[in-house]
């Protein structure tokens, strides 16, 4: 009889977004006239940049000729894309990363999850709380998380690093041992960013303890504050302790196109083994490359036109973030994030629970948010709002929440 990977059986249901969707559907069924605005979506809404489309069209045409046709490409990505990434995302910032340290993939989600393949199950894993759930669930699947306790919402073998108002949602290295440490900056869900000094602390901790930082920088394009590092490799010493995940998803609207990359420096070794070589073995064995057409589209964001066009989209989302932050702050709410990230982390008023506030805002303002507690126990008392909606919808949503608060909870609209 086949034995299953019983670690999967320990996973709690994927509750958060399905429960959000269920409550929205139930509300809409009971109030068919309500126009719900979703500030809960974590997906981009603006179309691909013209430069990307043009490059993809040209690549499709190439594929239709004998001379231009390509079958399997290099699993690690075409040299034209790896070189463009190294040059534009790293070398241009004075950071030494070479094309052979870059692995192009179909997503940062896959890479953050799959990276566990090259690490033993004995390793102690540290995660932020609240957290992007992929880090936790993939380690649970691999047997590194221990057992799940539904009362506390925690796994027995994970080290949780609370991200709370007191530490600016950016935790310091833990007291206990942590071998693999997931850091995500700009952060999903809190929208927080770590300073250069904070990242230096992490790099020093990792080098001193032989730990590895798994640095997810999927939202790098949203960084605006001067002197905030855009990559962990801006920090001295990171080449011997860090792996970085980046994605074209939020940078260039590629969530439906699928293209990302992982950076593993050649100096990163444990027990005399190069992790770059290990990941290369894993990647070339289990992955057959991102489509040529998609990689051509991704490379187009590094042209002058492409760069200007994606900046326009990011600026659009950034304006939404500013509107949410400023409007809700003016309404007397406490907002975090939304400066270097497309997420606003809103503290619920009067110590309300995340789900209670979700229900209130859905009912009274017809706005959908995401309950913070769904990202981890320390998210209780917060909700996440995203800047990925339309400009008018974002303005309307924040106006409705303001009205709701000022009128003491009376339904302002859509009912
Ligand atoms: N990392 C973080 C922190 C995310 O929030 C997301 C998507 O929401 C991803 C990675 C996924 O990126 P990709 O679309 O490249 O798989």
In short:
This protein has 415 residues and is α/β, with parallel strands linked by helices. Helices cover 36% and strands 15% of the residues.
Structure characterization notes:
- This protein has helices at 16-30, 50-63, 79-90, 108-114, 133-142, 196-209, 249-252, 275-286, 292-299, 304-330, 354-365, 391-406, and strands at residues 37-38, 102-105, 125-129, 148-149, 154-155, 159-162, 180-184, 212-216, 242-247, 260-263, 269-270, 273-274, 334-337, 343-347, 367-368, 370-371, 382-386.
- The chain has 415 residues and is of the alpha/beta class.
- It folds into two domains: 6-47 and 307-405, Aspartate Aminotransferase, domain 1 (Alpha-Beta Complex); 50-304, Aspartate Aminotransferase, domain 2, CATH 3.40.640.
- It has a seven-stranded mixed β-sheet, with helices on both faces. Strands 13-14-17-16 form a four-stranded antiparallel β-sheet. A two-stranded parallel ribbon has the order 1-15.
- α2 (50-63) runs antiparallel to α9 (292-299), α3 runs parallel beside α9 and α4 (108-114) runs parallel beside α5.
- Mean pLDDT is 96; it is low at 410-415.
- Pyridoxal-5'-phosphate (PLP) is lined by residues 42, 107-109, 132, 184, 188, 216, 218, 247, 249, 255, 260.
What features would you highlight for this structure?
Aspartate Aminotransferase, domain 1, seven-stranded mixed sheet, Aspartate Aminotransferase, domain 2, binds pyridoxal-5'-phosphate, 12 helices, 415 residues, alpha/beta, four-stranded antiparallel sheet
């Amino acid at each position: 009889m086949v034995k299953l990977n019983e670690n999967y059986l320990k996973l709690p249901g994927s509750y958060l977004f399905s429960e959000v969707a269920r409550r929205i559907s139930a509300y809409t069924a009971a109030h068919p006239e309500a126009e719900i605005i979703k500030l809960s979506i974590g997906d981009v809404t603006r179309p691909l940049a013209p430069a990307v489309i043009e490059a993809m069209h040209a690549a499709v045409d190439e594929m239709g000729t004998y001379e231009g046709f390509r079958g399997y490409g290099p699993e690690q990505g075409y040299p034209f894309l790896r070189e463009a990434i190294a040059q534009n995302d790293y070398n241009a910032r004075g950071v030494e990363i070479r094309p052979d340290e870059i692995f192009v993939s179909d997503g940062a989600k896959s890479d953050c999850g799959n990276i566990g393949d090259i690490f033993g199950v004995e390793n102690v894993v540290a995660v932020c709380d609240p957290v992007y759930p992929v880090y936790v669930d993939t380690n649970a699947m691999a047997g590194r998380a221990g057992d799940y306790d539904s009362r506390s919402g925690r796994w027995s073998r994970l080290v949780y690093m609370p991200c709370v108002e007191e530490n600016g949602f950016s935790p310091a290295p833990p007291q206990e041992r942590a071998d693999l440490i997931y850091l995500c900056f700009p952060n999903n869900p809190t929208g927080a960013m770590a300073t250069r000094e904070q990242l230096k602390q992490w790099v020093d901790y990792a080098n001193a303890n032989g730990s590895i930082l798994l640095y997810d920088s999927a939202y790098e394009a949203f960084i605006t504050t001067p002197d905030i590092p855009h990559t962990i490799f801006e920090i001295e010493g990171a080449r011997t302790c860090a792996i970085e995940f980046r994605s074209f998803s939020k940078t260039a609207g590629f969530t439906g196109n699928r293209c990302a990359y992982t950076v593993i420096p050649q100096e990163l070794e444990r027990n005399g083994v190069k992790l770059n070589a290990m990941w290369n073995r894993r990647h070339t064995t289990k992955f057959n490359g991102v489509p040529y057409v998609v990689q051509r589209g991704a490379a187009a964001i590094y042209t002058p036109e492409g760069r200007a066009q994606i900046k326009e989209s990011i600026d659009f989302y950034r304006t939404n973030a500013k509107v949410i932050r400023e409007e809700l702050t003016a309404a007397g709410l406490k907002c975090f994030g939304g400066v270097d990230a497309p997420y606003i982390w809103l503290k619920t008023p009067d110590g309300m629970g995340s789900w209670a506030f979700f229900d209130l805002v859905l009912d009274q303002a017809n706005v959908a948010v995401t309950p913070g507690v769904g990202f981890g126990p320390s998210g209780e008392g917060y909700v996440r709002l995203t800047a990925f909606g339309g400009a008018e919808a974002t303005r309307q949503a924040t106006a409705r929440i303001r009205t709701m608060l000022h009128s003491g909870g009376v339904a302002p609209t859509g009912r």
